[in-house]
């Protein structure tokens, strides 16, 4: 597909599915695995990452002509760290219970490679509007992935969803799902599913091409 | 003394940085194709963790007392620049050591395990000696996980695995099983 003029809408939706940061690019794995033991934690983490990524992208993109390229990475990190501090302190004030549960993983947004990757690969080369659209798309994709993973693990691991009990008393929760191994296994199986989906689509396209060549 | 041993064992096995806290997953999945690279990256990480823990102790005791809310930014900047400086020193002093470990040093600085070490040491209120033992334990735990993973992956490259499963999906499932095995260590001390 020839790439025409960059389209804001295209930049926005590519992060959701086609270039999903978690399922396709496998970036930012630490929070993905660590905070997804319940859907609400995953959601809060997703929102925090969304805020940091969007604001940092907007700032990096508007300063892109001023940042000397030798020190660009450190500059990005300082910008990101500033907003992570803002998020950390706000969460501590607004949602102390969730903040306690997420623990060190809110400050660790600073070293989420997805955020730094977007600054380096996109925000530092594109105008503000496109950079914000790209950041929003990627962050939404990230949030979606976190929420999916968190929901699966919470439903299987504690039999509830967003804190609401789903099954009767006879349901025996799979405790392993909310423990560390469950994170690895769930993500592994999800990636497997995505891989299968992709190969199936490729085979379909191939078959269609063959049919067309015959007729 | 008993406390220090406990800190060491618990970070090495029970609260392993990679398999229980999910820190440093990027190198864990990315740099474990070969056993010897994984091992060298692990050694370099232990080294950086040592420097980090010294830096954090100095910062916490002498500088951040005046502005605790700036801790995140300070850690990142100070750790990154110190590691850069050490890298230059090593390159001058010992080119052999630099060839073995040097290329990994800048990479490791942005590894989440390093920042996490800084944050955990602060949260737990460790002093200098405790911090160093904690750094050693978590660094060795990281190396252990890396080496185990690399060994398993070297074996699986020759195994007849369906193409669908090959790649990150299989690695994550292997990691899950490893992590399950490490959970067994949790009973190591409570039983005794």
Secondary structure tally: strands of chain A = 2
The number of distinct structural domains of chain B comes to 1
Distance between the termini of chain B: 18 Å
Pairing-aware structural class of the strands and helices of chain A? mainly alpha
Mean model confidence by pLDDT of chain B: 84
By DSSP (H or I, 4+ residues per run), the number of helices of chain B equals 10
N- and C-termini, Cα separation of chain A? 24 Å
Q: Give the CA-based shape of chain A.
A: flat
Molecular shape of chain B: globular
Give helix % range of chain A: 55-70%
Poorly predicted runs of 5 or more residues of chain A: none
Q: Please give the largest β-sheet of chain B.
A: none
Name the pair of protein chains with the most residues at their interface, and give those residue counts. A-B, 38 and 40 residues
Report the oligomer: heterodimer
Radius of gyration of chain A: 20 Å
Overall structural domain count of chain A: 1
> Rg of chain B from C-alpha positions?
18 Å
Q: Strand count, sense and closure of the main sheet of chain A? A: 2 strands, antiparallel
Unreliable stretches of chain B (pLDDT < 50, length at least 5) are none
The secondary-structure class of chain B comes to: mainly alpha
Could you please describe the fold and organization of this structure?
The complex is a heterodimer of chains A (215) and B (192). With 215 residues, chain A is mainly α. Chain A has eight helices and two strands. Chain A has helices at 8-14, 29-34, 39-62, 72-94, 96-102, 113-123, 128-158, 180-214, and strands at residues 160-161, 164-165. A two-stranded antiparallel sheet of chain A has the order 1-2. Chain B has one domain (2-185). Chain B is 77% helix and 0% strand. In chain B, helix 1 runs parallel beside helix 8 (128-158), helix 3 crosses helix 4 (71-93) and helix 8 (128-158) crosses helix 9. Chain B is globular. The relative contact order of chain B is 0.20. The mean pLDDT of chain B is 84. The A-B interface holds A 26, 29-30, 33-34, 74, 77-78, 81-82, 84-85, 88-89, 104, 107-108, 110-113, 116, 176, 179-185, 187-189, 191-192, 195-196, 199 and B 19-26, 29, 69-70, 72-73, 76-77, 80, 110-112, 114-116, 119-120, 123, 164-165, 167-173, 175-177, 179-180, 183.
């Amino acid at each position: 597909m020839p790439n025409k003029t960059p389209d804001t809408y295209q930049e926005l939706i590519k992060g959701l599915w086609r270039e999903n940061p978690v399922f396709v690019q496998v970036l930012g794995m630490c929070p993905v695995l660590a905070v997804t033991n319940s859907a609400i934690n995953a959601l809060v983490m997703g929102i925090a990452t969304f805020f940091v990524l969007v604001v940092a992208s907007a700032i990096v993109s508007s300063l892109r002509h001023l940042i000397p390229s030798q020190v660009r990475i450190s500059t990005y990190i300082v910008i990101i760290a500033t907003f992570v501090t803002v998020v950390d302190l706000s969460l501590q004030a607004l949602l102390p219970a969730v903040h306690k549960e997420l623990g060190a993983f809110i400050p660790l947004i600073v070293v989420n490679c997805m955020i730094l990757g977007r600054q380096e690969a996109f925000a530092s080369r594109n105008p503000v509007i496109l950079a914000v659209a790209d950041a929003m798309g990627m962050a939404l994709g990230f949030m979606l992935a976190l929420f999916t993973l968190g929901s699966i693990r919470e439903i299987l691991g504690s039999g509830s969803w967003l804190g609401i009990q789903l099954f009767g008393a006879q349901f025996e929760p799979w405790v392993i799902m909310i423990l560390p191994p469950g994170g690895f296994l769930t993500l592994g199986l999800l990636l497997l599913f995505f891989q299968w989906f992709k190969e199936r689509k490729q085979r379909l396209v191939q078959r269609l091409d063959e049919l067309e060549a015959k007729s | 003394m008993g406390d220090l041993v406990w800190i060491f064992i618990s970070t090495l096995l029970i609260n392993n940085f990679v398999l229980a806290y999910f820190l440093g997953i990027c190198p864990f999945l990315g740099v474990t194709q070969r056993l010897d690279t994984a091992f060298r990256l692990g050694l370099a990480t232990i080294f950086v963790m040592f420097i980090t823990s010294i830096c954090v102790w100095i910062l916490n005791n002498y500088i951040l007392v005046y502005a605790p809310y700036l801790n995140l930014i300070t850690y990142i900047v100070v750790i990154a620049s110190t590691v850069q400086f050490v890298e230059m020193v090593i390159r001058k002093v010992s080119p052999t050591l630099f060839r073995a470990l040097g290329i990994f040093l800048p990479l490791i600085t942005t590894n989440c395990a390093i920042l996490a070490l800084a944050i955990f040491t602060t949260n737990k209120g460790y002093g200098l000696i405790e911090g160093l033992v904690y750094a050693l334990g978590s660094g060795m735990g990281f190396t252990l996980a890396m080496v185990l993973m690399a060994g398993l992956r070297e074996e699986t490259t020759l195994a007849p695995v369906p193409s669908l499963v090959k790649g990150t999906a299989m690695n994550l499932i292997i990691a899950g099983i490893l992590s399950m095995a490490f959970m067994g260590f949790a009973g190591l001390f409570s039983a005794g």
